[in-house]
């Protein structure tokens, strides 16, 4: 149901949030907004919660989304809530936002809650010069990759300096002591693969957004000074091992914040570094990232406000968030000439053409009459969309050509790096050289998402892992019953599938074998897990298998909740593979049950007409065919009206 939403802020992030909300027909207000906002701009005093509340009450607005971190530091969430609790402000309280407001607080929190992070020391504003030199020259001397100096407190993404030597580090600490709150953090520099992980949080549960990769340095080739971000690409796919570590980071963080009586509600953004298969947290941000949001919102195939309300209602455990399949986004920041050292104001801007494959998100722009002018450091963020990252980058760059203002600068290499190197292994090349393709595995996961999502039923919304939780109460089954588990395969029928070159049936057979097994116990199938192993992953074949599994599960209203795909060269030949499944079912104690205890010798057996030999006896069948030199392409001597070959006839799917 469409609602009215007030978005606080003026950057590219806020434009992207408003744009995402507008796609779902919500009425959008922005304050203060910028020169590109097609939404109603409201002139509010964002330092005065009474002004915000009065306007919301007068205009029937109960949803407020906070963009910039500076407002969180001023405790805008609690201040509005204290005046009007009916207004739903999306963002963490000031106490919860300490994870970003104070880098020192965040470091100590991570240490206490066993969240991996770089080694560090804290230098206070009253630390003497000799003590600073002692810390950096002696205590930091074993940091092989160098020293990072960070200003404690908010610095708009620019309070971080990567120093080249101890003398530079000492000078940078002295400089930062005189700025901000006087406290400085020095930490070990980590070298690895940097990632941005954002999640919707309701205080207890985190639902992660797709991983993205930010580019902080001003110049191409990751050179030049650090900035608030010059571009982002996503989604980025990682190994299961890396993925599990990221999940644990969010779990530990939410648990730790809850233990401190400061539950975290809002978007939590973890800046990560992957080093030799271990994930370290560089920093936390307590809001939508900028420019990460300009990539994530175009990838979101869902109503953002619905997700926001689930966070507010602490209902994320029962919420599924949808993202576009097979879509990539590349966001390139267009900045002023002297960014990040100074901003640019009043320079005329022209935008000459349109491109449906790219979106212009305004940031540092303003309207002067009917003229568009610069009004900041980062002027635009242009997001290209495509089925792959390279084309998404090209779409963004083509769109940037249509933007003209004096002194514009941007990076042309955002998204050009090999983003598939993130495998969680100490030596990425060892995977491909051993015959395991991480890239194909990630592409396979992306291809099967839509098939798996189509099977989800009430109580089984978790997908993408090796298993899942099932809410029996939401299934209407409660606890007055028992679980029934069945496991089976399809035997050597897989050889028939390989011979006839058709993999669109055998997944159905696998589900049928498992479903029929639990049906013999008078149980209702509710969840299925599959195991697919091969010598070399063939994407088209594997997708056909999973699609047929999902089609069968849909037919019996059973959810595919997890599974394992294993590529095992040297153990299996390139063309060898196998398939197995596990069916989880439930039965109420009062449901009828087969009288197996009463079955005895002499009972009559009733045979029912079958559509084929299904999945039993194929080892014998194949032996008979081989002994009699009969090919699968031979027309069957029965059912002539069907014009089937032996392969087609014997490959018919099982009935369920």
UniProtKB/TrEMBL annotation:
NCBIfam families recorded for this chain? Answer: purD
Q: Do you know which InterPro entries this protein is assigned to? A: ATP-grasp, ATP_grasp_subdomain_1, PreATP-grasp_dom_sf, PRibGlycinamid_synth_ATP-grasp, PRibGlycinamide_synth, PRibGlycinamide_synth_C-dom, PRibGlycinamide_synth_C_sf, PRibGlycinamide_synth_CS
Pfam families per record: AIRS, GARS_A, GARS_C, GARS_N
**Is Ligase set as a keyword in this record?**
yes
Single Gene Ontology BP annotation = adenine biosynthetic process
Annotated pathway: Purine metabolism; IMP biosynthesis via de novo pathway; N(1)-(5-phospho-D-ribosyl)glycinamide from 5-phospho-alpha-D-ribose 1-diphosphate: step 2/2
Its Enzyme Commission number(s) read 6.3.4.13
The identity of this protein, by name, is: phosphoribosylamine--glycine ligase
